[in-house]
Design brief:
- The chain has 138 residues and is mainly alpha-helical.
- It has a domain of 94 residues.
- It contains four helices and no strands.
Length: 138
């Protein structure tokens, strides 16, 4: 008869750095999928981009809140990324409210949004994510 063994090993710590980077890659891949898709299938991809981006921005806002707790230095570190987040969130809201059948306008907006997201993700990966290695708080 098999007995249930209980292991008292603690769960693996969450690798927030990996989660954030994976989200970045996934979101950028969705933008590329959008660019390569026929116009009649793009709306579903836009909806997925908006959902993933909104969830990702919420996750990073938690990260920013923790970094701000480090005091003046932490607040300074997240100042620019928070502003870029606000800009990207505004773009998400604009695209959610976009009405019409102007494929070219949507394409141009999505291209601008992708460029904004890419710039934000690059600065986060360069400037903020390495800080996670040095902090046990996040």
């Amino acid at each position: 008869m098999e007995t249930n063994r209980r292991t008292d090993t603690p769960p693996k710590p969450i690798n927030l750095r990996r989660i954030v980077r994976d989200n970045h890659s996934q979101i950028l891949a969705l933008f590329h999928l959008y660019s390569g898709s026929p116009p009649d299938s793009r709306r579903a991809i836009v909806d997925e981009i908006l959902h993933e981006l909104a969830s990702h921005l919420e996750l990073e806002e938690l990260l920013f809140r923790e970094i701000r707790r480090w005091g003046p230095q932490g607040r300074k570190l997240v100042e620019d990324p928070e502003q870029e987040h606000d800009n990207l969130k505004a773009m998400v809201r604009q695209l959610q409210q976009f009405e019409g059948d102007d494929d070219q306008a949507i394409d141009e907006f999505c291209e601008d949004m992708m460029q904004s997201a890419r710039a934000l993700f690059m600065s986060e990966e360069r400037d903020l994510l390495p800080l996670l290695d040095h902090s046990s708080d996040v």
